[in-house]
Specification:
This protein is 10% helix and 26% strand. The chain has 234 residues and is mainly beta. The strands form 4 sheets. A 5-stranded antiparallel β-sheet has the order 3-4-10-7-8, with no helix packed on it. A 3-stranded antiparallel β-sheet has the order 9-5-12, with no helix packed on it.
């Protein structure tokens, strides 16, 4: 209790002293008479990206395309070949016996693998196959050949001249070495769809030839075109 007999100024000092003690006891510290800080408890909390079972919950998807050159494209026949020259397309029996006005055909099927996400695939123009010896040093036959490519999602479709009767299915039509696909094709995730390509390579009746070269100069020559399918995930 304050001393009632003390002078007024002393009593005021006592009241101020008691107030400071009371504030300090309550967890408040007066600083220079201008402000104060509160004493406080601290705590921290953490979280992590998990899978609900204690494992990591953030990762990347996978994208992988595989091919099959043997119709009717049984599941066991799919494989991955990511560098030139890849698998050999099985052209029809007259592939090495072309004459002006004739053509040869070969199919290939593409799909994503079982653990892959979806994507799209586009056909690039042909380039010479690595590691294959041909008899066409000046590429006269190469420059004379014509390519067409038709697509379908039917694994039972024939790969012959009938594959090109629907114009909307034809994605390539032009000189062998400069003609790629005009559009990309979708591939569903986890092997959910199969895209089949039918290649037609032909020797036109009036092929493009160097000046002064006759069509007879093409006899006995060989070529080995390789095509790349450029795939990109969605």
């Amino acid at each position: 209790m304050a001393d009632s007999t003390a002078p007024p100024r002393a009593r005021k000092r006592n009241r101020n002293r008691n107030r400071v003690l009371a504030l300090a006891a309550g967890g408040v510290l007066v600083v220079g008479g201008l402000g104060y800080t509160l004493a406080s408890w601290t705590d921290t909390e953490w979280v992590f990206g998990g899978n609900g079972s204690g494992g990591p919950g953030v990762g990347t998807s996978g994208f992988e395309v595989e091919q099959n050159v043997l119709a009717p494209f049984a599941a066991a026949g799919f494989t991955s070949d990511e560098s030139n020259s890849g698998q050999a397309l099985r052209f029809t029996v007259d592939a090495l016996a072309l004459s002006p006005g004739t053509a040869t055909y070969a199919p290939v099927a593409l799909r994503t693998t079982a653990g892959s996400i979806a994507g799209d695939v586009a056909l690039s123009a042909a380039v010479p196959a690595d590691g294959v010896t041909v008899t066409d040093a000046d590429q006269t036959l190469w420059d004379a050949l014509h390519v067409r490519v038709a697509t379908t999602t039917s694994t039972a479709a024939a790969c012959d001249a009938t594959a090109f009767t629907t114009p909307g299915n034809v994605i390539a039509d032009g000189p062998l070495g400069t003609t790629g696909g005009s559009a990309a094709q979708p591939l569903a995730a986890a092997a959910g769809s199969t895209q089949v390509y039918c290649f037609e390579v032909s020797l036109p009746e009036s092929p493009t030839l160097p000046s002064g070269t006759t069509v007879d100069a093409l006899q006995g020559r060989t070529a080995a075109p390789a095509w790349q399918f450029a795939a990109e995930s969605d």
